[in-house]
Amino acid sequence: MKHQDIMRMCLQNLLRRKSRTLLTLLGVLIGCCSIVIMVSIGMGTAEAQKKMLAEMGDLTIITVTPKNSGTKKEKLTDKTLKSLKAMDYVVAVTPKISLDDYDVTVKLFAGINDRYVADWSSVAGIDTNELEKMGYQQISGSEITRSGEMLAGEFVAYNFADTFRPEGSNMVDRWSGGFDDQGNPINVPDPYFDAGKTPIVLQIEANNKTIRRELQPKGILKEDNAKGAETSYGLVMGIGDLRDMLEQLQEPGKKDDGYKTVLVKVSDITKVAEVEKKIRQMNFSTSSMESIREPMEREARQKQMMLGGLGGISLFVAALGITNTMIMSISERTQEIGIMKSLGCYVRDIRILFLSEAGAIGLLGGIVGSIISMIIAVTINLISFGMPPTPEYLLAAIAGSESVTRICVVPPWLLLSAIVFSVAIGLGSGYYPANKAVQISALEAIKSN
Amino acid sequence: MARCLRDQPIIEVKDVRKEYPLGEETVVALKRINLNIHRGEICCIFGTSGSGKSTLLNQLAGMEKPTRGCVSIGGVPISRLEEEQLAAFRQRHIGFVFQSYNLLPNLTATENVALPLMFRGVPKEQREEIARKILCRVGLSHRLDHFPSQMSGGQQQRAGIARAFVTRPEVVFADEPTGNLDSATTVDIMKMICGFARKYHQTIILVTHDPEMAAYADRVVKLIDGEIVSDEMTGSRQKKF
Question: Would you say the ipTM is above 0.85?
Fold first, then answer.
């Protein structure tokens, strides 16, 4: 028999008992829907977790520090940096000096005769060539290219007090204008000066020594709490400059301890654990979001499997429905099968015919089920947003967006695999009935009623 | 089949015995049948119910395997063929006319008649064209797109005959083809079957318990209790057509 003939017969047979086919289909549809919705809720949880972690810090950055204890302490030297850079999946490596980690007093001055002064500020030195790769974003200005240059944190200018004004009214309050619905400050007053254009003097005091250095502004960084306070109320400068200053302050005769922190950027989130393990083997301490992410992901996966299993049960029930329908259909069509055999229909064609009837129920149930579950998922998302379903939010409910967290995440592969799974269920549950059909003898045709 | 000579029997039945288990006991339906049927013969297997005539038909058509002995059609030992080979053999060489017509209820007359061609993989357009032609020849040109439930018994059986002959098989088995029909229709149907057979030199195996039907055949094989008791040439060819 030709394939199109089998398809045509299959369709005719399904349409013969419309209500029965429809009910069986409904079973598959519900099973398919429940699997998709359950899995999508699980994936939604995972997505929300990932988003939460991303807000806490860059998921692909590993922070490497020397070990605090242990017999053989490795130092983070330039040599270490080189070997880290040579590792697989490592995109960028930079040492980071944060003055917060040192026992020093930091003051920033700006304006003529140090008119403006900031008593506490986060100052960080990093390899300025790797700034962009490490995920630092700039609002304005250009890159640091030379020694003696710096990038100001987004709100560092608000840290400065005006020495010409009396105590209590010598600072600009960024939040004085109130807040909008989302909690962002509005009517923000301008600071005393533009940090992106004003040179700032960094003064570090330690070991009874004080050194100052004027830094030329190159631009303003975007605030990023995952990176550190230097992007908001501080400044970033070349690591060389900062190291020089610290060396000058050091007590004579004390040898170099190496870097306190090195940041390693990994190409992909899935490789973080692998790279981290290798660095640990080099006898360093590491920390990354992976240690938080991994157990969270495991938990999410367990939840997902549990939910998927619940959906799977309903699809299994649907599979029994298909089997039942097919067996019913075969016992009704016993004579028909006998006739077909006596007219010379191949056994394999009969098998294919019944399998394709069962498979078609699975396919149709899968497709319609996927469409319906997509609609349900989008509706759940829209309700959870609590916003009117504008095109923008509709798109966010379907494909997701930065600003909102979806409850149900339905990626295309989930729908596709739901359909494939439904077809497989259909074929699987049609297997036994098809075998039964094949065993019917041509003699059935001759038995007169 | 083509290389088969004229005078060689097209159907050869050799020492066929068929037993059925019936509870503890074994019922012997066919004792020891030896029968040769020649090409172009209209052979009637005649017997009362329980005589074993239907069992013999089942053996001849390869529906069942004999307990012992061998059935060959055109030299092919069909009693030893596998199911798939048997299907292929039926497609090419065998036609069936059933007592209860056995048209598929959800197919139209044309589709029903085209069914054996469909199993052979003939494209839809082509096979339905052939089916329509033969339906016109059996006088159903006005029933082409009717479903079996919309046709009378005689019309259904005519469609059944069209289906049996549509592939131009060498052998057509007819099991009480007029058993459910009135006498006027019976004559029509029998004339039709014999007409086709004579025209294309086909062999008909007609199974019946009705002595009137036997009159249409060239040869009557009488069966009682699983044994052939008589085998006569009737010469009906001259008498009736």
Answer: yes
